Amino acid sequence: PPRGGSKEFLFPAANRQEPKHFRSLNLSSVKWKGKDLFDLVCRTLGLRETWFFGLQYTIKDTVAWLKMDKKVLDHDVPTEEPKTFHFLAKFYPENAEEELVQEITQHLFFLQVKKQILDEKIFCPPEASVLLASYAVQAKYGDYDPNVHKRGFLAQEELLPKRVINLYQMTPEMWEERITAWYAEHRGRARDEAEMEYLKIAQDLEMYGVNYFAIRNKKGTELLLGVDALGLHIYDPDNRLTPKISFPWNEIRNISYSDKEFTIKPLDKKIDVFKFNSSKLRVNKLILQLCIGNHDLFMRRRKADSLEVQQMKAQAREEKARKQMERQCLAREKQMREEAERTRDELERRLMQLKEEATMANEALMRSEETADLLAEKAQITEEEAKLLAQKAAEAEQEMQRIKATAIRTEEEKRLMEQKVLEAEMLALKMAEESERRAKEADQLKQDLQEARESERRAKQKLLEITSKSSYTSMNSSTTALPTDLPSYNLISESLSFDFKDTDMKRLSMEIEKEKVEYMERSKHLQEQLNELKTEIEALKLKERETALDILHNENSSRGNSKHNTIKKPQAQGRRPICI
């Protein structure tokens, strides 16, 4: 660095030198460097895309990053024990889907961006917050199952920024209902796919990946400097969404600082040099450090991938293809199992139905047998009564004959005898009529008994038919029931092998292009869904609780401004002197 305590970085940047790797690490050694600690963390995580990350610590309310080539104890770290370093993403990709290769890299970015959105360090509109929450739920819980994910299963989850919750007159149940509605549409997405969709939406937010610093221009006006993957941006302190002016990395010739003064020299010499002052020298060092790293990655993206990156991408494609094949195999097995279970349930239902029919037939048969027994018993009683009446009639006839034979010759006795004879004749007549009636009733009961026995015979025949059907159905259910040797899902498969040839790579490239077209269609559908949700919850919004960022976001949306076209506007304008 030049004398006078200033440091300067000229573009394009020099090639990064990779320090050697250490086999062992002595944590108590005074020669321990930042690179040693960083490599230890990366090896522990299995992380190879190390250029995005760093170890962060805080000194005097200012954020600082551990330098790789400097001893840890030589840094201005806090003296208290234990010393705390945060492993965080230091630089952000322009396109997460294309640049983040390893699944662990995607997962770490997902966790960090999600926390920044929930902590409101990144502004996110309400409708996008609901969509992002649905992808976060998909990543954690897997596919939606109404039997498992019942009402209230998200009650303990932190999914939305408090600003969004307070902005609307909506209960937690109403928010959960809207999140679950979108969550159900993500069925079939694995955890890494859901996390990547989360990042693809989050990377279009205005404050994504931007590091803000308080600065003052020559006139003493307070401004904000934003450093991100695309360049440097100047903001009003009250508006962190839309920059007043932007300096893309490919239009900057030189960045330098001297003490607290920072200088940005555009590539076009007709444009004035922009100078500003920061609050501390340490802040200028941090700004320059972020500029160097972001510019290095900016230039790297526009060159051919290194051999290491090519190898990682090839391995990632193979791993993606393997997982896709495993998921397809698992889906087929799951479908077969569900079909077999449905068939089994249908057979069990049919068997239960036949059992119920057999039980009803048995009950009907038992009722018929009981009716026949009652009729037979009643017929027997009637027949006995008829015999008894016939016997009484015979006795009455004998008594009449005896009375006639022993009649008294006297007139009075004759009259009495005649009266008795008349009464006996009338009684005999009644007895005969009653006997005839009882005989007819016995015949009728015998006829009813025959009909009951015929009904019993038909019930037995129907029971025999149902029993034969049940045995036939049981034989079918035993042959079509869920097989015990159904193929089970096994992650460790010795039969899976991959030989990626040129034809496979061409086919994979065509699939990738097809996925891009499908992604554009899904993006259009997604935007329509976001607009529908925004319209739906607009009536519940509390206008008085809107923050300044909410108002600015609504104004940008009404003008059609987005993160990317805002940055491109200064390039389309004429090269005029900068006045801020």
From TrEMBL:
Residues 438-457, 553-580 are annotated as: Disordered. Residues 509-550 form a coiled coil. GO terms for molecular function: actin binding. Its main location: membrane. Residues 5-302 form the FERM domain. A 1,2-diacyl-sn-glycero-3-phospho-(1D-myo-inositol) binds at residues 67-70, 285. It is found in: Cell membrane. The keyword Ribosomal protein does not apply. InterPro entries: Band_41_domain (IPR019749), ERM (IPR011174), ERM_C_dom (IPR011259), ERM_FERM_C (IPR041789), ERM_helical (IPR046810), Ez/rad/moesin-like (IPR000798), FERM/acyl-CoA-bd_prot_sf (IPR014352), FERM_2 (IPR035963). GO terms for cellular component: plasma membrane. Keywords: Cell membrane, Coiled coil, Membrane. It is a peripheral membrane protein. This is NF2, moesin-ezrin-radixin like (MERLIN) tumor suppressor. The lineage of its organism: Eukaryota, Metazoa, Chordata, Craniata, Vertebrata.
